[in-house]
């Protein structure tokens, strides 16, 4: 989702504190984007790799602390399994709090990457 959309939601909430007091909102993009789609949007391609290859690449980079390697591989695993695609969010308040349709995530991504 667009940072500007999140900023607009935050502005709306802080300018009407009595209306939002004590509430918790789920804010997620309305459409999950996959790696192949993201690569294609900027003229690239995507070849999925294995978790073992991801672990090796993270370790070989030498930048990660020991606890970060399994944490990152676990995150990659959750993404590959579809657990972070937002489909489990039943009460997405983004559109309601924006008062309009959110910016299309793929357009936001392309603008951010291609500048």
Overall description:
By secondary structure, this protein is mainly alpha-helical. It has 7 helices and no strands. It has helices at residues 3-15, 17-20, 35-41, 51-61, 68-80, 94-98, 105-114. Helix 4 (51-61) packs antiparallel against helix 5. The radius of gyration is 18 Å and the shape is globular. The chain starts with a helix and ends with a helix.
Ordered list of secondary-structure elements with their pairings:
Blueprint: H1 3-15, H2 17-20, H3 35-41, H4 51-61, H5 68-80, H6 94-98, H7 105-114
Number of strands: 0
**Number of DSSP helical runs:** 7
**What order do the SSEs take from the amino end to the carboxyl end, as H and E?**
HHHHHHH
Oligomer: single chain
Radius of gyration: 18 Å
Roughly how much helix do the residues carry, as a percent range?
Answer: 40-55%
- Our measurement of the CA-to-CA distance between the termini, rounded to an integer number of angstroms, reads 16 Å
Q: How does the major sheet shape up?
A: none
Structural class: mainly alpha
Mean pLDDT: 90
User: Per DSSP, what share of the residues sits in E-state strands of 2 or more residues?
Assistant: under 5%
Gross morphology: globular
The low-confidence parts are none
Question: What keywords describe this structure?
Answer:
115 residues, mainly alpha, 7 helices, 0% strand
Give me a quick take on this structure.
The chain is mostly helical and 115 residues long.
